[in-house]
Amino acid sequence: MSRDKTEQKENTEQKENTKASAENTEDLEEAPAEEVQEEKSEKSPEKALEDELASWKDKYMRLAAEYDNYRKRTSNEKLSIYDDATARAVTELLPVADSMQMALANLKDTDPEILKGIELVSNQLNKSFEKLKVEGYGEIGDNFDPNLHNAISKIESEELGENQLAQIFQRGYKIGDKIIRHAMVQVANCD
């Protein structure tokens, strides 16, 4: 009997050892699975934070681009408003400029002191136009451009080439690309 009890005891111990080994094996198998789940749960908040950061960065970049566009648009509008206001003011001064040019052209035989005074006033007016970035255009011999010139007559001339300005009745003025007044001209050799 003692032998049977000893064998039973040994069998029981073996079974317990097997159970313990199996449990240890299960613990070992479960441990990596738990670690993987822990890693996933750790990556998940990191991934969420990275996604949130990317979202905020995208919003920031869009806002910065929108602000830059707004700044450029308002800057262009301010320049446009300035040019429009300058053009309206200069339009009122153009008859004075025309009168000064006609006086200089027609008073060649007058007293030199009067002519000098008119030249000084004309030069002051031209300097004022330069400060306002107003350019006069339309010279004899220039090529005719319908965007800049208003042709009121034509003439045939051997001295001038085709579609060249033969006579300037009224000078044109512009600020940058904005036309204040088209030049009234006579065009030579046009069809």
Describe this structure in words.
The chain has helices spanning 2-106, 112-131; strands at residues 134-137, 149-155, 164-170, 172-175, 178-181, 183-188. With 191 residues, it is an alpha+beta fold. The strands form 2 sheets. It has a 3-stranded antiparallel β-sheet with strand order 1-4-5. Strands 2-6-3 form a 3-stranded mixed β-sheet, with no helix packed on it. A hairpin with a 2-residue loop joins β4 and β5. α1 (2-106) runs antiparallel to α2.
Map the helices and strands:
Layout: H1 2-106, H2 112-131, E1 134-137, E2 149-155, E3 164-170, E4 172-175, E5 178-181, E6 183-188
Parallel strand pairs: 2-6
Antiparallel strand pairs: 1-4, 3-6, 4-5
Please give the radius of gyration in angstroms: 46 Å
What string, H for helix and E for strand, traces the elements in order?
Answer: HHEEEEEE
Sheet with most strands: strand arrangement? 1-4-5
Distance between the termini: 139 Å
Number of strands: 6
How many H/I helical runs? 2
Report the mean per-residue pLDDT as an integer: 82
